[in-house]
């Protein structure tokens, strides 16, 4: 991005209500710990500021992409030209009216689940232990333990590239297995409503702990990963196919296939995005050679492979 573009955005009044960093290494903002720098990293402190940032970026012709907690992305080593809008702790309000819960997009799913435990509201227990933000969970229609966001979300407020707010009802969200309208249309999630039910607080808490514990037993939760790398193919499990193909323990640079769960790539130290993408391709090929199935990645690959000439990406 030309510096002038940054100046255009910086001068926007809306940015007074946002935290701004330049040349920010995205490895600091992704669970895999990889990713080159963002030219401009903007974390709005209000929904109005978020809408203004988007509107100014669009008007200035500067590209932007949204990052939640970065737990389902591989940001490439060249980083991101333009603006990364971080929707995280700055936009994390959670409130309740009866059994309707409203959460800003940057609220962590874990925090939402914890709050529901305290309120004795049932419906979101399946999501306990899914890392990331409410916005990211809706984009991915995140799910586990027979539940997914499509079962509990009631509405979403999204922002268009021109900065206008749009309220979408559940049946407008096109929520299917790890997919949603937000993967196909340029809409930024600002806030969402969840329709839950009154439950017994002790039972909600017990189910929540059970789910979290089960994750610790089956997933490499102490290591840097992006969760499941591949989607479930029809009638099978990516983890089973990968394990049967001998993928466990395979390594490219600092990236390795977890010994605990074959559908997890972990950064065992010093991995680059290039290592991770290389390993993904290697195991995709192995599964294809053995089963004639081409696994489809669940993780999103963002940014550019190469840094602009003459720049220091800070990667590595
Ligand atoms: C250890 C581990 C376990 C996991 N287990 C599960 C699991 O059980 N089930 C599951 O479904 N996933 C799982 N995941 C993957 C991940 O946690 C989820 O997909 C999560 O919902 C992503 O949220 P995020 O905020 O990190 O999104 P990010 O990774 O930041 O973003 C994901 C995508 O959404 C977009 N995005 C993010 N926020 C917004 C927004 N507000 N508006 C518009 N677009 C946005 C981004 O541009 C990107 O394309 C796991 C990950 C890890 C590391």
Provide a descriptive summary of the structure in words.
By secondary structure, the protein is α+β, with helices and mostly antiparallel strands. The chain has 3 domains: 87 residues, 2-Layer Sandwich (Uridine Diphospho-n-acetylenolpyruvylglucosamine Reductase, domain 2); 114 residues, 2-Layer Sandwich (Uridine Diphospho-n-acetylenolpyruvylglucosamine Reductase, domain 3); 83 residues, Uridine Diphospho-n-acetylenolpyruvylglucosamine Reductase, domain 1. It is built from 7 helices and 19 strands. The strands form 6 sheets. The protein has a 5-stranded antiparallel beta sheet. α3 packs antiparallel against α5. It is globular, with a radius of gyration of 20 Å. The two termini are 22 Å apart. The relative contact order is 0.15. The structure holds flavin-adenine dinucleotide (FAD). Flavin-adenine dinucleotide (FAD) binds next to β3, α4, β9, β13 and β15.
Measure the end-to-end span: 22 Å
| Number of separate structural domains | 3
The counted number of beta strands is: 19
- Integer-rounded radius of gyration: 20 Å
Q: What's the arrangement of strands in the largest beta sheet? A: 6-7-13-11-12
Overall shape: it is globular
Structural class: alpha+beta
